[in-house]
Amino acid sequence: MSDYHEPVEELTEEDRNISRALRSLKEEIEAVDWYHQRASATTDDSIREIIIHNRNEEIEHASMMLEWLRRKMPAFDEALRTYLFTEAPITQVEAAAAGGARPAGKTAASGLGIGSLKGQN
User: Fold this and answer.
1) At what angle do helices 45-72 and 74-83 cross, to 10 degrees?
2) Which of 98, 21, 95 is nearest to 62 (CA)?
3) How far apart are CA 43 and CA 65, in angstroms?
4) Are the C-beta atoms of residues 70 and 76 closer than 8 Å to each other?
5) 114 inside domain
6) Residue 61 burial (CB < 10 Å; 0-12/13-18/19+)?
7) Are residues 57 and 88 in the same domain?
8) Residue 58, Cα to own-chain centre: how many angstroms?
9) Could you tell me the mean pLDDT of each successive run of 10 residues in the chain, 121 residues long?
10) Is residue 85 part of a domain?
11) What is the pTM of this model?
12) Domain count, the chain
């Protein structure tokens, strides 16, 4: 049985690679959750250290896949540049992005701080 929702022959190789990446990202995030729960539940400190190490490896893998997706999908790039590494409440970041403004607390690392140049001639 196929994991595709559309006929695979109608998808380009890039589409199939994006699907693979999204599926892999989902699996990595699930693994983070599993390891996190195990680390929280165990009473043995020595095994907790190993489980936390494994969880952090999965976080690294998820981050790598997310970066690949950011490079391949402009919508991911735009959203990640909007929301990551900000200090304001996330809903304020969203409201400011929808209105074209910079929210208070948005860090310099998340953009150049020059604002939108749309509509300026």
Assistant:
1) 120
2) 21
3) 32
4) yes
5) no
6) middle
7) no
8) 13
9) 86 97 98 98 98 98 98 97 94 90 54 46 44
10) yes
11) 0.77
12) 2
